Automatic annotation (TrEMBL):
<dbReference type="InterPro" id="IPR032387">
    <property type="entry name" value="ACAS_N"/>
</dbReference>
<dbReference type="InterPro" id="IPR000873">
    <property type="entry name" value="AMP-dep_synth/lig_dom"/>
</dbReference>
<dbReference type="InterPro" id="IPR020845">
    <property type="entry name" value="AMP-binding_CS"/>
</dbReference>
<protein>
    <recommendedName>
        <fullName>Acetate--CoA ligase</fullName>
        <ecNumber>6.2.1.1</ecNumber>
    </recommendedName>
</protein>
<dbReference type="GO" id="GO:0003987">
    <property type="term" value="F:acetate-CoA ligase activity"/>
</dbReference>
<feature type="domain" description="AMP-dependent synthetase/ligase">
    <location>
        <begin position="69"/>
        <end position="457"/>
    </location>
</feature>
<dbReference type="Pfam" id="PF00501">
    <property type="entry name" value="AMP-binding"/>
</dbReference>
<feature type="domain" description="AMP-binding enzyme C-terminal">
    <location>
        <begin position="518"/>
        <end position="594"/>
    </location>
</feature>
<keyword id="KW-0007">Acetylation</keyword>
<dbReference type="InterPro" id="IPR042099">
    <property type="entry name" value="ANL_N_sf"/>
</dbReference>
<dbReference type="Pfam" id="PF13193">
    <property type="entry name" value="AMP-binding_C"/>
</dbReference>
<dbReference type="InterPro" id="IPR025110">
    <property type="entry name" value="AMP-bd_C"/>
</dbReference>
<keyword id="KW-0547">Nucleotide-binding</keyword>
<keyword id="KW-0067">ATP-binding</keyword>
<comment type="similarity">
    <text>Belongs to the ATP-dependent AMP-binding enzyme family.</text>
</comment>
<dbReference type="InterPro" id="IPR045851">
    <property type="entry name" value="AMP-bd_C_sf"/>
</dbReference>
<keyword id="KW-0436">Ligase</keyword>
Length: 634
């Protein structure tokens, strides 16, 4: 492997990296036992992995102690969290000492509200420090956090509260978005009113982000800040078994119902620390900015756990990339001397459009590592980010992973792995990808296939909440002996991986996973719709956009488009709003009644020929009908 083209000094040399890879492959048990020493254990695990019991099974530890307490001796006055408010003049810095204190106070508040180890606590907050504090406060007392993305609709929130059995919710009166206010508390109220019998929420703690008033239900809702003031600044941590769930995080799959992915404590934390250090070349003094919302796994692993476990400094930004004007993000990097910047291809595509002169106005020389995640990045976006933001000086890590993997799986390692624009490059030491053909046979050399993983790794999800059988069916049974990722990939002659996208019915909109079935289930609740199909098509900014076909019942109302759109945004959320809704008389189906998505995709992309053999369709004529509807001037 050629040496790094970058002027920086990175932690790992190509030789050292190769030694890690070899060691992890040859002696996995020893390798992971070594890596487990990144953490402080109350009971050291006697074994790294065992198929029956998972990772570090007989170990015991506390997550918040690992993120905070154990740094106090050496880093008490170092910034752990820098919060940049939307208002440029407002910055809050929490040192490890003050963050520890805030976390303990909130943990005490949770205990005083009756929350016990193993209980689920939902967190529904905008990008304010309380989000990170709440996550760690839960872990302090062994409660399982369930962060709910701010963009979810009331119904989506309600479903997740019921499924997780949350006993308490931490929310905000509102979120700030420029001059707009996002009604967090009102959305939660609506969610709690939807299934009053089914949910188990006893208390709602409300963070006052602004002084906006909201309605408070006397026996249920409490403003958080007075409680925090009165709470003790110290809180004895709960000792937790390594395999205890640390958090649930809901994600979409090919079935309609979102799945509560369960991550464990010991294995997940080892993976968060290991991957953060390796992939982001973590060094003393780094300022780490991950732009993902804490409502997604990226915000969990790299917005909170990874950097704090490694004694780093996290930057959290409340605002948007281009508010109040273009260049806001670059301004934040300049002001806080960000060294490590982790974002999404979607954001890069949008920022690219603002033009190069915007970026050039800022001093971005503090940057050392740039990272992307969530979707394949194009060569063009990769080069723009690398050249104009990174000034050609930075390491670039295109990181492939997923909610279920807990942390990064395939990615360059700065200084050690030669990058190729738009390739996620090589698996991290200890990760073993395979490409399979349709029959599940591994393919060797340069090839393309279904991306699976051989063996386990510490960050792997434990199960799906309330549905262990679904976990088996989704990830372990499709290709026996392997973990099925849902993605397809190509491997080139250098062994580099190029992710080609989902092979299941999951649509990736701006890096957010949305299941076709989730949208179709939402549409099924609209009585005027007989059936529907949702598919993803390429979209310049979002990566993929959603197109839906709806078949009306006989007496279709005139406002069917509107009703369809509303069914989706109210059941799923604003982020799932479709680009196009086509009202059609029928869908192309096989004789056994299965919609043929391949055809629906082609038609939605404006293709008019090359559909192949249509004779297997129940009604081959339908293809021409759909084409004429989609091509008709609107
Ligand atoms: C899916 C996982 C991992 C945190 C963000 C998304 C796609 C992820 C890449 C990448 C190409 C990528 C895959 C994956 N994906 N990273 N670097 N290149 N595709 O987490 O919501 O669980 O989605 O995102 O399709 O399966 P997620």
């Amino acid at each position: 492997m050629s040496s790094s083209p970058h002027p920086h000094t990175f932690r790992l040399s190509p030789v050292a990296y190769e030694a890690l890879t070899d060691h992890a492959a040859a002696e996995p048990e020893l390798y992971w036992e070594g890596e487990s020493r990144r953490l402080n254990w109350n009971a050291e695990p006697s074994q790294a992995y065992c198929e029956k019991q998972g990772w570090f099974a007989d170990g015991a530890l506390n997550a918040s102690v690992n993120c905070l307490d154990r740094h106090l001796a050496t880093r008490a006055d170092q910034a752990a969290l820098i919060w940049q408010a939307e208002d440029a003049d407002r910055v809050l810095t929490f040192t490890y000492q003050t963050l520890h204190e805030q976390v303990c106070r909130l943990a005490n508040v949770l205990r005083s509200q009756g929350v016990q180890a193993g209980d689920r606590v939902a967190i529904h907050l905008p990008s304010v420090p309380e989000g990170l504090i709440a996550m760690l406060a839960c872990t302090r007392i062994g409660a399982i956090h369930v962060v709910l993305f701010g963009g979810f609709s009331a119904e989506a929130i309600a479903d997740r509260l019921v499924d997780s059995g949350a006993v308490l919710v931490i929310t905000a009166n509102v979120g700030r978005r420029g001059a707009k206010r996002i009604a967090f508390k009102t959305a939660l109220d609506a969610a709690l009113d939807l299934h009053p019998e089914a949910h188990t929420v006893r208390h709602v703690l409300v963070v006052s982000v602004t002084d906006d008033d909201v309605s408070m239900q006397a026996d249920r809702d409490i403003w958080l800040s007075p409680l925090l003031k009165d709470a003790a600044p110290d809180c004895a941590p709960q000792d937790m078994p390594s395999s205890a769930p640390l958090f649930l995080l809901y994600t979409s799959g090919s079935t309609g119902k979102p799945k509560g992915i369960v991550h464990g404590t010991g294995g997940y934390l080892v993976w968060a620390s290991y991957t953060h250090e390796l992939v982001f070349d973590h060094q003393e003094g780094d300022i780490f900015w991950c732009t993902a919302d804490i409502g997604w796994i990226t915000g969990h692993t790299y917005g909170v756990y990874g950097p704090l476990l490694n004694g780093g400094t996290v930057l959290l930004f409340e605002g948007m990339p281009s508010h109040p004007g273009p260049g806001r993000w670059w301004n934040v990097i300049q002001d806080h001397k960000v060294t490590t910047f982790y974002t999404s291809p979607t954001a890069i595509r949008a920022l690219m459009r603002e033009g190069n002169d915007v970026v050039q106005r800022y001093d971005l020389s503090s940057l050392r590592v740039l990272g992307t995640v969530g979707e394949p990045i194009s060569h063009e976006a990769w080069s723009w980010f690398n050249d104009h933001v990174g000034g050609g000086r930075c390491a670039f890590v295109d990181t492939w992973w997923q909610t279920e993997s807990g942390g990064i799986m395939i990615s360059p390692v700065p200084g050690a792995v030669r990058e190729k624009p738009a390739s996620a490059t090589l698996p991290l030491p200890g990760v073993h990808p395979v490409l399979l053909d349709e029959r599940g046979t591994p393919k060797g050399g340069a090839t393309e296939g279904v991306l699976c993983l051989k063996g386990s790794w510490p960050g792997r999800a434990l199960t799906i909440w309330n549905d262990a059988a679904l976990f088996e069916r989704t990830y372990l049974q499709p290709y026996p002996g392997y973990y099925f990722t849902g993605d397809g990939a190509r491997r080139d002659e250098d062994g580099y991986y190029w992710i080609t996208g989902r092979v299941d019915d999951v649509i990736n909109v701006s890096g957010h996973r949305i299941g076709s079935a989730e949208i179709e289930d939402a549409l099924a609740t609209e009585l005027a719709i007989a059936e529907s199909a949702a598919i993803g098509i390429p979209h310049d900014l979002k990566g993929q956009g959603i197109v839906v076909y709806v078949v009306p019942r006989d007496d279709a109302p005139d406002d069917l488009h509107l009703r369809a759109a509303k069914a989706i945004t109210s059941k799923v959320g604003r982020y799932a709003a479709p680009e196009h809704i086509h009202v059609v008389p029928d869908l192309p189906k096989t004789r056994s009644g299965k919609s043929v998505r391949r055809l629906l995709r082609k038609i939605a992309c404006g293709e008019t020929e090359g559909f192949g053999d249509l004779s297997t369709l129940a009604d081959p004529e339908i293809v021409a009908t759909l084409i004429s509807i989609i091509q008709a001037p609107k």
